Amino acid sequence: MNRDELLALPVSVDVPTAGKAFGISKLTAYRLAQTGDFPVPVIRVGRKLVVSQASLLAALGIDSAQKGDTAAA
Q1: Within 13 Å, how many C-alpha atoms sit on residue 26's CB side?
Q2: Which pLDDT tens digit goes with each residue over 13-69?
Q3: Between 73 and 31, whose confidence is greater?
Q4: With contact defined as beta carbons under 8 Å apart, do 60 and 6 qualify?
Q5: Residue 19 · residue 36 · CB < 8 Å
Q6: CA–CA distance, 38 with 51 (Å, rounded to integer)
Q7: What's phi and psi for 15, nearest 5 deg?
Q8: Which of 2, 32, 46, 60 lies 20 to 30 Å from 21 when distance is taken between CA atoms?
Q9: Is the CB of residue 20 less than 8 Å from the CB of residue 13?
C-alpha cells in the first residue's frame, strides 16, 4: 500500500487490511493479533478485531500532513 492508500483508509480497519500495510498475509496477521504480537495495538470490538488508522500510520512512519507519493513498507 502506498501513502495515499493508507491515508484514504477509514478511522479503523480490519486486521487483514492492517496486515497488508505491513506486507503480511491475512493468516499471519490474525495469528499475530491473537498472540499479541501484531506491530500495532489490536482492539476487539464485539467479535471483530480492528486497528486504528492513526496507530497504523504512526508505526509506518507516515505523517498525515506529508505531501508526495512515497511508498509505504
Answers
A1: 3
A2: 999 999 999 999 999 999 999 999 999 999 999 999 999 999 999 999 998 766 454
A3: 31
A4: yes
A5: no
A6: 10
A7: -60, -45
A8: 46
A9: no
What would the DSSP string read from start to end of 49-73? EEEEHHHHHHHTT--TT--S-PBP-
Residue 2 · residue 66 · CB < 8 Å: no
- Residue where the block lists cell 512512519: 61
The pLDDT value given to residue 68: 52
How far is the first Cα of the chain from the last one, in angstroms, to the nearest whole number?
A: 8
- The owner of cell 478485531 is 49
Strands 12-14 and 43-45, bridge-based pairing: unpaired
pLDDT at 5: 93
